[in-house]
């Protein structure tokens, strides 16, 4: 599964000792794009993701692994990032205050033209 969005928060890294040695994990919050953006908390384990990608404001494509497990009758779900890359078409502010692609030019929106006389409508 893949998730595209912008990193909006990095939570404090956590470390510990396990039967296989020292472990490290960090949760990050990604806000999705679209009309109704969602905030998703995902987990980065170990050193799999370069630190240069884990910066607030980076627009990324994260490959996810979702897994649930049961412990003492309760279920727990992890959303782990196993690969992350910067989006090639990162968003940048436009002159009109909106947001657009960094590599798009100034394009005027199309205007609607209709050859419509209003007669013989089926409704």
Task: Write down the oligomeric state.
Answer: single chain
Structural class: mainly beta
Q: pLDDT below 50 for ≥5 consecutive residues: which ranges? A: 92-116
Give me the side-by-side strand order of the main sheet: 1-3-4-6-5
The radius of gyration over CA amounts to 22 Å
Morphology = globular
Could you describe the 3D structure shown?
By secondary structure, this protein is mainly beta. It contains no helices and eight strands. A five-stranded mixed beta barrel has the order 1-3-4-6-5. Strands 7-8 form a two-stranded antiparallel sheet. The radius of gyration is 22 Å and the shape is globular.
Give the SSE map.
Layout: E1 2-10, E2 14-18, E3 21-32, E4 39-45, E5 59-71, E6 74-86, E7 91-93, E8 99-101
Question: In a few lines, what is going on in this structure?
Answer:
This protein is mainly β. Helix content is 0%, strand content 53%.
Task: Please describe the structure with a list of short key phrases separated by commas or semicolons.
two-stranded antiparallel sheet, five-stranded mixed barrel, 0% helix, globular, 123 residues, mainly beta
């Amino acid at each position: 599964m893949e998730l595209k969005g912008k990193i909006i928060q990095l939570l404090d890294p956590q470390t510990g000792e396990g039967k296989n040695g020292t472990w490290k994990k960090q949760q990050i919050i990604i806000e999705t794009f679209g009309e109704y953006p969602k905030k998703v908390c995902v987990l980065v384990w170990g050193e799999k993701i370069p630190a240069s990608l884990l910066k607030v404001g980076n627009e990324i494509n994260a490959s996810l692994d979702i897994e649930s497990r049961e412990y003492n009758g309760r279920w727990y779900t992890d959303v782990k990032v196993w690969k992350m890359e910067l989006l090639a078409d990162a968003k940048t502010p436009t002159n009109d205050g909106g947001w657009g692609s960094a590599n798009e030019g100034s394009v005027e929106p199309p205007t609607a033209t209709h050859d419509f006389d209003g007669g013989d409508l089926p409704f």
